[in-house]
Design a protein that fits this description.
Elements: E1 7-9, E2 12-14, E3 18-20, H1 29-36, E4 61-64, E5 67-70, H2 79-92, E6 99-102, H3 107-119, E7 125-129, H4 145-158, E8 163-167, H5 173-183, E9 190-193, E10 197-201, E11 203-204, E12 207-208, E13 216-220, H6 225-238, E14 244-248, H7 254-262, E15 265-270, H8 272-277, H9 280-296
Parallel strand pairs: 3-15, 6-7, 7-8, 8-9, 9-14, 14-15
Antiparallel strand pairs: 1-2, 4-5, 5-13, 10-13, 11-12
Helix pairs in contact: 3-4, 4-5, 5-6, 6-7, 7-9
Bound molecules: 3,4-dihydroxybenzoic acid (DHB).
3,4-dihydroxybenzoic acid binds near residues 23 and 47.
Length: about 300
Amino acid sequence: MTVSLSTTIGNFTFDNCFMNAAGVHCYSKEELLDIYQSNAGSFVTKTATLEPREGNPLPRYADTSLGSINSMGLPNLGLDYYLTFLEELEQSSTTKPTFLSLTGLSSQETHQLLNIVNQSSFQGLIELNLSCPNVPGKPQVAYDFETTNHLLAEVFTYFTKPLGIKLPPYFDIVHFDQAAAIFNQYPLVFVNCINSIGNGLVIEDESVLIRPKHGFGGLGGQYVKPTALANVHAFYQRLNPSIQIIGTGGVINGRDAFEHILCGASMVQIGTTLHKEGIPAFQRLSQELREIMVQKGYESIDDFRGELKYFA
Ligand code: DHB
């Protein structure tokens, strides 16, 4: 039996449903090319701001037995760096569509970034990050529904390229309802669930693991899978079918990816596991997912996407 991991987001086709999660192995051209040249279906850049940023003081990332904690503080090389790289990549190779992640430190900066991207030759997808938990003094936009609605309303007055949003986890059914009601008003191509569970605290011996914010940081890995699956499925149930879901959070093996797709994900992003294992993670996860699909008789991810079973 031949099994395909190919998928689509909007009008874009990908040979493989796995890619990195923004923030992991995507800071420099070299890292992005590592992913591009692997069997991953695509890559997303480190979330870009208008100006380059150094981010928070080190140590700012730690792997733990159950996942990871980070408070990076948006270190990035600036929008120009990533946009120029993507434009050049598109000139030299059109084999994989790519994602550009960006966020402004203010609404005004977000509009500035999106206007630059709109006027560029970049032909891929744009992921607007509404969920960075680690910049001191800057709350996550997506936890403020009024600001989120206002921002999206303004963005879609001028932005014409394929746009999705990166969301933080929500933890209340009413919040799923309210957020979905907002997102359904806009021609979003995708929502990506979830960013890290913000502001956890991991302790070893008597000390925190990372320097910024007295050790508080975003959690990834095994800690977050049930929350990620719930968010993927909650939005799959509520959003217009034209808004696809990217599933991110707690994917350590093929079974975890299978569960994200069952919950409704069309593509699956790998964060902590990619940080721990490096590029070979894509091959391993692809093989493990294919084996599950063979066992169950599924030839494509469309055969089981969203088919989560409930009790009667
Ligand atoms: C950072 C962390 C995030 O979870 C995010 O969405 C953007 C930036 C960071 O700390 O760099």
